[in-house]
Amino acid sequence: EPEVTQTPSHQVTQMGQEVILRCVPISNHLYFYWYRQILGQKVEFLVSFYNNEISEKSEIFDDQFSVERPDGSNFTLKIRSTKLEDSAMYFCASSEGMTGAADTQYFGPGTRLTVL
Amino acid sequence: AQSVTQLGSHVSVSEGALVLLRCNYSSSVPPYLFWYVQYPNQGLQLLLKYTTGATLVKGINGFEAEFKKSETSFHLTKPSAHMSDAAEYFCAVIRSDAAGNKLTFGGGTRVLVKP
What we know:
The complex is a heterodimer of chains A (116) and B (115). Chain A has strands at 5-7, 10-13, 19-24, 31-37, 43-50, 53-57, 65-68, 75-79, 88-95, 106-107, 111-115. With 116 residues, chain A is mostly beta strands. Chain A starts with a strand and ends with a strand. With 115 residues, chain B is mainly beta. In chain B, 39% of the residues are buried. Chain B starts with a strand and ends with a strand. In chain B, the strands form two sheets. In chain B, strands 2, 4, 5, 9, 10 and 11 form a six-stranded mixed beta sheet that branches. A five-stranded antiparallel beta sheet of chain B has the order 1-3-8-7-6, with no helix packed on it. Chain B is built from no helices and eleven strands. In chain B, a hairpin with an 8-residue loop joins strand 9 and strand 10. The chains are: A mainly beta (116), B mainly beta (115). The interface between A and B is medium-sized, with 30 and 29 residues.
């Protein structure tokens, strides 16, 4: 069964450094998402991406964050200058894009980001 | 804005007993509702979803949920718990008119199954 993959599984970085989290969505999917879960808190939406542009973003997704689909298979989340409070599990998801809000979003296993 | 409340961050059930996980939502427009399960060190996996039509929805692994608009609820049940049901369960809501397909999650309920 096709699945969303994410690399790395765990990333440790120093505060102020740039990180890029990588995701390979399911191949025929058209919508891509990033969510995050700070330890002990709810899973939070960051951004959705469709047709090579951002569809929606949350208030968390400020100028420090960016997303890109650099080629036909990868979807990346970049954090330009990491802060301690960026430490979280980051989940990538994708959906077919055929039924809009009713689409099932398929989640990857997550990347645990630790900012020291 | 929409929101989700899951009553009980931890639930302990005996193997073979009923599993009942509560979810209440608020949404200014008709919602679509989802239950996801997360096993240790894995991503979120869809159990079931309600979009339109029949309000009793059956999902994988013997789970089902009923959408009750009057109660703004979408509780998840399974008649007989199995050890493999130990996991964290998340209820989520999305606006049916959402342009960006933003899912809003509840806080999650961790299920412990006792032998």
